[in-house]
Design goal:
With 395 residues, the protein is of the alpha/beta class. 39% of the residues lie in helices and 13% in strands. Strand 5, helix 7 and strand 6 form a beta-alpha-beta unit. The protein binds pyridoxal-5'-phosphate (PLP). Pyridoxal-5'-phosphate is lined by residues 45, 105-107, 131, 177, 181, 210, 212, 240, 242, 248, 253.
Amino acid sequence: MQVIWVASIFAERMKVLGTETAFEVLAKAKALERQGKNIVHLEIGEPDFDTPKHIKDAAVKALYAGYTHYVPAAGIQELREAIAEDVAKSRKIEVSPEEVVVAPGAKPIIFLAILACVNPGEEVLYPNPGFPIYESVINFVGAKPVPLPLEEEKDFGLDHEYVKERITKKTKMIIINSPENPTGGVLTREDLKLIADCVSDRDNVLVFSDEVYSRIIYEGEHESIASFPGMKDETIILDGFSKTYAMTGWRLGYGVMRKDLAQKITQLMINSNSCTCAFAQMAGVEALKGPQDSVKEMVAEFKKRREIIVSGLNSIKGITCKKPCGAFYVFPNITGTGMKSQELSDYLLNKAGVAVLPGTAFGAYGEGYLRLSFANSVENIKKALNRISEAIETL
Ligand SMILES: Cc1ncc(COP(=O)(O)O)c(C=O)c1O
């Protein structure tokens, strides 16, 4: 008998690459809309506000001023300077422009930093439930993902004993995200100190601090682990323009890290993207240096919606919901409905016309939860709450 061996066209590593379910649910919701169904979109993680006019004007001006060609791989000097100044002020640390790498969105910095720093077999601690790209890229480079469960009883903060037990000789990187996607949790000073203490007595362990929601915070001020004594050089700060300035489609983000790391990430940028869109970078300069009123207004509006969605969810049978401290997501506990996360999110999409994400889209510890974005109008949020309530009543 002849044995037919069919080799896969794809590299082995593709088998372990994950995804971001939000885009898949969006596609399903859009397909239902094409069939004439009305859907309320609470699945996608982006502000429903338009990019402020003065930022758009800066991009148009830059286009006509000739920012239409290649620019340095690590970013236009003007933007690197503006970022260095902004991060120095907000994190109360010294930052030089050479420590800034600009990228097409914040996401590529996650990919490139893990690619540049983590070897196969090394361990990376990361929040779970958490932004799914962390686990996906850790797996992709052949490293071992070590989940740090974020529990509702601890306000989605860290279990300190658990963290200490998970740090081994093989630990290469610890990823934290505050304010957090999907829980809206904010790490406490004690949480950050714990991570700083774990890293300070170890060589070659980096903290990757995803701070893309740092400006979307409802109580108190954002605190970065990079501000802790001795931590600046051990930390890669991730931030960007997508969430703060409602610029998700512009693809503009950045990492702040010590120079040797910045050079390696820049080399990866040269190998992958060449550089980030030039006129978008000039809009970034205006975003950071221009008026910040739009950010304040957006956060004030999110705060109002947070009250509505949290109290609405808490009045639905089988659902309980904590008030998130930052970002624009709620992460309600749905165990009282008797349904699994995936099952309930499918049910809500198909039956109630409300697109939400199952907690499990953010890792195994997200079972028993849903993620709803409140980056949608009050009218749509109320409509979604009514629909969810009715659909659950008829279960
Ligand atoms: C925690 C977190 N990090 C990074 C990103 C990526 O941001 P960007 O759109 O700028 O690539 C997101 C986007 O949803 C996020 O939630």
